[in-house]
Structures are given as C-alpha cells and as structure tokens.
Design brief:
The protein has 217 residues and is mainly beta. Helices cover 10% and strands 29% of the residues.
C-alpha cells in the first residue's frame, strides 16, 4: 500500500511540474540554458529558390529570413535584399575545400540589411567582396583560403575580427580596418600578402599570431 501511495505522489508531482513548465514563458534546455517554450524555432524552407544566379533555401524568423546558398550559377553573386517579402538578415554561404565549382565565383555583394555572414572560405576565384554596412562582426574563418582576394574594406559596424578570418589569403595586400574595431582574433591574417596595415586606436586586443607569416608586412 505504501509503495502504491508513493507511486501516486511521484506521478502527481511530475504532472504538476510539467504543467508549471508548460504554463510559464521559460524552460531549461539539457545544457542548462533558458529558452522561451512559447516561441518555436525557425522553420527551414527546403523548397529551393533560384534568384540572382544562386540556388538557396530559407529559415523564417519573425523579423526576416536567413538564406542558405546551395549552388551558384554566376561569377557575380548579388544577395537579394528580400525573399517573399521578408528582409534577408543573414546569409550562410558555406564552402569547404572538398566542394567543387558549386561555390566558386568572382564577386559577391551583400545588401546592407544583412547582419551576419557565414563562411565564404575556400573560394579560389573570389576577387571582390562587398560586405554589408550593418555587419556585426567578421566571423571565424569567414574568408579563409580565398587566395585570389586582393583587398577588403571592413564596415564601420564591425567591432571584432574572428580567428583565422583571412588566413592564407595569399593575394590579400590591402585591408582597411574601421575606427571602432576592438579586437583582432588569433591568426586572423596569418599568411596574407599584406604590405602595410593601419591599426585603429580603438583596438584593445591583437590575439596570438594575428599577422603570423605575413612576410611582406
């Protein structure tokens, strides 16, 4: 009898606790992070869209979309400002060493609505990149091994350059860093062809090997 009563109390407690979690605005993930249980995650739209010479799919957010590029059909890529009436806020252009010509193009233009760009790396043909004026940061490995890139202008909105961001950009001779930049990550320009660079007075940290193997600097 005692075992049955204990079991009943345990089940009731679990049910009551679940009710509290479902009723509240926040819950806890398996790693202890807090999340809003009333807000569903973004919904990937796997219906591919072909526009401006690129093939991509979208993740929908309340205030805009993130597009994931899957194939490129042009040498001059222009990222659309809107998709199906929603503002493009983020672009994933992932390319890796094993990828063939599906991600090889000469130039890419991002509209100023874009706040986050992921992985343009290993594009051996890329010569010109127009980064958006509202970009939050230069992410880790963003232009790693883009061996044809000769110059880049970092937007004024950027405060951080990530690790290995321009590693082995062996043709990169000219970089314009913005006033307001706070940090340059580990090996950010390692192996680049830089001949000179002006570090803004706002920079607080230059991490290990940021200019390692810049033999022309």
């Amino acid at each position: 009898m005692k075992k049955i009563t204990a079991l009943f109390i345990f089940v009731a407690a679990c049910t009551f606790g679940a009710g509290i979690i479902n009723a509240g605005a926040e819950g806890f993930g398996g790693d202890g992070t807090v999340f809003d249980v009333n807000t569903p995650p973004p919904t990937p739209k796997i219906d591919y869209i072909t526009e401006n010479g690129i093939k991509f799919y979208c993740e929908d957010y309340e205030d805009g979309v993130r597009i994931h590029i899957k194939k490129v059909f042009t040498d001059n890529v222009v990222i659309p400002e809107t998709v199906n009436g929603k503002t493009v806020l983020s672009v994933d252009a992932s390319c890796h060493a094993s990828v063939d010509d599906a991600f090889q193009y000469e130039s890419i233009y991002f509209p100023d609505t874009v706040e986050d760009v992921s992985a343009l790396r290993y594009n051996k043909k890329l010569i010109s990149v127009h980064l958006p004026a509202n970009l939050n940061q230069i992410g880790d490995y963003l232009l790693d091994n883009c061996t044809a890139l000769e110059s880049i202008e970092i937007p004024d909105s950027v405060t951080q350059i990530g690790t290995y961001a321009f590693e082995d950009c062996t043709s990169l001779k000219s970089v314009k860093l913005p006033e307001g930049l706070l940090s340059i990550g580990e090996a950010a320009f390692s192996g680049a062809a830089l001949e000179s660079i002006k570090i803004p007075s706002t920079v607080m940290k230059i991490d290990y090997g940021a200019f390692h193997l810049c033999r022309n600097l």
